[in-house]
Write a structure and sequence with these properties.
The structure is a single chain. It is globular and about 30 Å long. Strands 1, 2, 3, 4, 5, 6, 7, 8, 9, 10, 11, 12, 13 and 14 form a 14-stranded parallel β-sheet that branches. The protein has one domain. 0% of the residues lie in helices and 54% in strands. It contains no helices and 14 strands. By secondary structure, the chain is mainly beta.
């Protein structure tokens, strides 16, 4: 039986590889696109789709995403219209605004969290 792909298992369209450091004023990505960060991004990210920050990934900047899965580090505020999942290896320093926050045991979160109802749930 084929496994149904959810938002977190769809193929990634953009990858910032491990060992790369990108200094950018702002990254933007359309709704149908997703991004995985294995390296370092210094700057803000605005993505309508899924942002996946792997264990080796780091973002120094603010994030505005449809959804996010974080296993690496974030130094900045995060706003997700749908859900954000902090894996056990995540280390987030900043405030989070989302409709759903999932925190695995072992994750580090330093900041405030505010939840809201997403546009899809209204």
């Amino acid at each position: 039986m084929a496994r149904v792909q959810d938002e977190f298992t769809k193929p990634t369209s953009t990858v910032i590889g491990n060992g790369f450091t990108i200094h950018a004023a702002k990254f933007t990505c359309s709704e149908s696109e997703s991004m995985r960060i294995d390296g370092t991004v210094i700057g803000d990210i605005d993505i309508e789709g899924l942002l996946n920050i792997s264990e080796t990934g780091r973002v120094d900047g603010h994030i505005n995403a449809g959804s996010a899965r974080v296993a690496g580090r974030i130094f900045g505020n995060v706003q997700c219209r749908n859900a954000i999942h902090l894996a056990a290896t995540a280390d987030v320093t900043g405030d989070v605004l989302t409709s759903v926050l999932v925190v695995d045991e072992g994750a580090v979160f330093t900041g405030r969290c505010q939840t809201h109802v997403s546009a899809d749930e209204k």
